[in-house]
Structure formats: C-alpha cells, structure tokens
Amino acid sequence: MEEEQRWGGVSSAALHVLAMALMLCDHLWAALFPAAEWLTCVGRMAYPIFAFLLVEGFFHTHDLRRYVLRLLGWAVVSEIPFNLMYAGSAVYPYHQNVLWTLLLGLLLIALIERARDRLRPVPTVLVSAAVAAAGYLLGYLFMVDYYGVGVLTILIFYFLQDRTWWRRLAQLACLAFLNLEVLGGYSYAVTLFGWELELPQQGLALLALIPIWLYRGRQGRHGKAFQYFRYAFYPAHMLVLALIRGTLAA
C-alpha cells in the first residue's frame, strides 16, 4: 500500500490524454492514411479507456444531472463533425458518434443504481442482467459507435470496478469475449516460433487494460480548462480531419 501511494500510478488526466492520442491515430487512419494500418491498430485501445473513465466519472461526480447534460450537449455538437469525417456528409443517420454510446452507458448505470434502491425484493443480478440486455439491444437500435458491444464494455467496468485480482481477470475475460468473439473482424497472419497464428485486430483493444490497471484513483489535472479541452477535442479534431480530406480531394 505504501509503495502504491508513493508511486501514485497513472492519473485519470493521463488516461484521458492517452485515449485522445489513440483515438486521433485511429481517425487519422480513417480519414487520411488508410494504408497505415498501425494507426487503427493502436487506435483499438482508445474506446476501453474512455469507457473506463466514464465509469470513474460516474462514481466521482458531484452532480450526475450535469454530467448527463454535458455529455448530451457535446454528443449533439459532435454529430456533424463525426458525420463529415465518417461519411463525408453532414447528415448520416446510420452511425452515431461515440459520445452517444457513453451517454447511453451512463444512463443505464444510473438506472441500475436507482433500481437497486427501489426494487429491493428483486435480486440485483436479475436487474443488472435485464439492463445489460436492454443496453446491448439499444446500442444496435440507435446505431451508436461500437453498437451494443460499446454499451456492454461500459457496464463491464461498472460491474467489475474495483482492483481485486479476480475482477481484473473477469474484465480481461469479458472484454476478450466481446472484442474477439462478438466484434471479431480483420486478422493478421503472424509467425511466432514457427507457429502460424491469427492476430485479430480488434483484440488489440485488450492492451488498454494495461494503463487502466496502472490507474490508482489519482485525478491529476482537473481544472475547467482541461475539462473543456477534453470534450472540445473530439468534435474539433474530426472537423479538422474532414476539412483536410476535403481539401486534398478537391
């Protein structure tokens, strides 16, 4: 414990900066450099970190209503930049930006917390399972980024939020199932010690657990300016990438 307190671990501010950098790599690949696949490979790690930070935000916020409204406002602001970067059009109803995923996850966590208090005769596990199933379906219904898997990723960090070894093992197992089995996707052929292996690209998202597990609850920089920067970076960088791509294509 003394060693942990002396070192301090990775702060939430550092995790935010890391996640933003990883997300930028992924979006650079999507918008400008599709041949540089290493960009999207490292970008796989961004979303689990954002999902983890959302859960941390829920447990540490002093005003849940303001937290929800802040996410809602930035989700609305980010939709056109996301559409321009993702589809080259200001209107694209078939895929929504990741802030909607985070907002949906936050609302479901709040629902679980309230249901636990009001539905005491009903076992907590049944309430949690019902909300998780609903969240998975809603993720696909509203076509949010990462769909139902994105919502379940948030709930995994909520249900398994402390630092005991078995909860970390459960995080790894659950995220492995979601990313390798449910999402799946493109794989790379890798030769290791003479063995031919398939490395799933989406499986690289599991590497996000390394910085997440190094987190020790330290907030780090948390002023209003930094908070504004964190939210504004999302729509701003997508708009810039869309404009650069449009200029190059002209």
Description:
With about 250 residues, the protein is mainly α. It has eleven helices and two strands, in the order H-H-H-H-H-H-H-H-H-E-E-H-H. It has helices at about 1-5, 10-30, 35-45, 45-60, 65-85, 100-120, 125-140, 145-160, 165-185, 210-215, 225-250, and strands spanning about 185-190, 195-200. About 30% of the residues are buried. Residues about 1-5 have low confidence and may be disordered.
Counted beta strands: 2
End-to-end distance, in Å? 59 Å
Sheet-strand content, in percent, reads under 5%
Overall mean pLDDT stands at 91
Q: What is the helical fraction, as a range of percent?
A: 55-70%
Q: Looking across the biggest beta sheet, what order are the strands in?
A: 1-2
Instruction: Tell me the number of helical segments per DSSP (H or I, 4 or more residues long).
Output: 11
Shape: globular
Radius of gyration: 19 Å
